[in-house]
TrEMBL record:
This protein's name: Core domain-containing protein
Domain Core stretches: 1-112
InterPro entries listed in its UniProt record: ATAP_core_dom (IPR000361), HesB-like_dom_sf (IPR035903)
UniProt organism field: Enterococcus florum
Amino acid sequence: MYIQLDDRAKHQIEQHLDSHKIVLLTFEDGVGEYSQHAMIHMQTQFSINIIEEAMPKEGYDEKIKTNTVDFWIKGYSKEDLQEEMTLRWNERLSTYVLAGEGGIIDDNVSFIDFTKKRDA
């Protein structure tokens, strides 16, 4: 599996990285601490998450190569992905579009940097 990021998507993600951070491509199924919600509709949904290396990543047991850093995934989410994919920045919606050789996988991939402090 491989994901080719367009220049803007690559820049948007890389500006959040340093040598102690990793990228997760999270299948939004409600499983794990980085999944924001369970699927409540008939649409495959993913998010891009940034975490510190020291943060827990249970369940993220496989990597996908990209033209930047590897993306960690939940291994079972591969059934909703394709061998050759692209990730592009959607300027209008400020989200990402994940597509494969079979078409769009998710046209509204969100982004969350879990390394940033959040107000309680």
